[in-house]
Amino acid sequence: MGSVFGRSSCYQDISVPEGLHTLAHGPRPLKVAAAGALNELVNGEVQILEEVLDEAQGVHMPIPPDGRNLFKVLADELSLGPFDGADVIATFLERCTAYDTEWDDEDEWNEQVLKVQEFLRESPGAVSGLAKAKAKQSGSAAASLAAVLLRLSHDKKTQVEVAVLPWWRRLYLPLLGYFKRLTSATLGWPQNRIPDVSSVNTRVQCAVCQNYTSQAPVVCSQCNDANYCCQEHLDADRGRHGTWCFEPRGGKDTKRATSTIAPAVSNLGRLDGIITSRPIAAS
Ligand SMILES: [Zn+2]
Ligand SMILES: [Zn+2]
Fold first, then answer.
1. pTM metric for this prediction
2. N or C, which terminus of the chain has less Cβ within 10 Å?
3. Gap from CA of 224 to ligand 2 centroid (Å)
4. Alpha-carbon distance 99 to 226, whole Å?
5. 11 alpha carbon to ligand 1 midpoint, in Å?
6. How far is the centre of ligand 2, averaged over its atoms, from the C-alpha of 92 (Å)?
7. How many Å lie between the centroid of ligand 2 and the Cα of residue 90?
């Protein structure tokens, strides 16, 4: 178990593709963990935001038969009412649509942000889903969603309003946070835990040896979204990958056809060098 204050080893390391897969297909607590991990990366990082949009557009994995893309899934989750970690998921949506006002439309990050905003505007049910989510949430989650909605409807550059807290809440919130971390560390509750992000692109690289898997990859049969160089390494990584491995919503119909592995390979190395290189240890 990790330090009470620092990042915890409670969750296994997560790769960017695994994070996106978890957001789209995993259960709520793991969605929160995946969003927490990606939130730290996506800020200003164009390639990560490209991956997010690819995921929402079904580039790697087809959109499930229910027609709900990544963003719609997250909006729907937030529409179910307040829950622990809702603000983390709302922050993810906020960061993916956050225009950097220090720069203009020509800026690479802003260009990608505008693509995401455009996609959301045109994606069926996305704006209404976000509005419903905002109505159901409060506090910082609602503030993040309000900013996203304003970006889509009025001003693409809308920033999140940072509420000025009364003094007693400024005092109380850190204490509450401390107490929660302490109890979750003692009792093993998985709140306030953010997994470490691995530098390996598990769609095109073996998580164990990091070799590129373009030649005859061994694909995880459960999520169909992780490639290995060989069966032995797939087996060796089960303990780690298993945390972030979910059958896609809609089951087998949603699984990518072998032919869609090819475009993923063309993105080979896209994520390289972005994340501080730290291989995943074989368990
Ligand atoms: Zn390998
Ligand atoms: Zn898997």
1. 0.81
2. N
3. 6
4. 32
5. 22
6. 23
7. 26
Instruction: Give a yes or no: residue 188 inside a domain.
Output: no
Centre of ligand 1 to C-alpha 234, Å, is 8
Cα(277) to centroid of ligand 1, in Å? 17
Tell how far the Cα of 243 is from the centroid of ligand 2, in angstroms: 9
Domain extent, residue 65, equals 16-176
Q: In this structure, is residue 133 part of a structural domain?
A: yes
For the chain, what is the domain count?
1
pLDDT tens for the chain, residues 1 to 283: 333 444 445 788 999 999 999 999 999 999 999 999 999 899 889 999 999 999 999 998 899 999 999 999 999 999 999 999 999 999 999 999 999 999 999 999 999 999 999 999 999 889 999 999 999 999 999 999 999 999 999 899 999 876 666 677 677 767 776 776 666 566 555 555 789 999 999 999 999 999 998 888 999 999 999 999 999 999 999 999 999 999 998 876 665 654 344 444 444 444 544 444 444 554 4
Burial of 67: CB neighbours in 10 Å, binned 0-12, 13-18, 19+: exposed
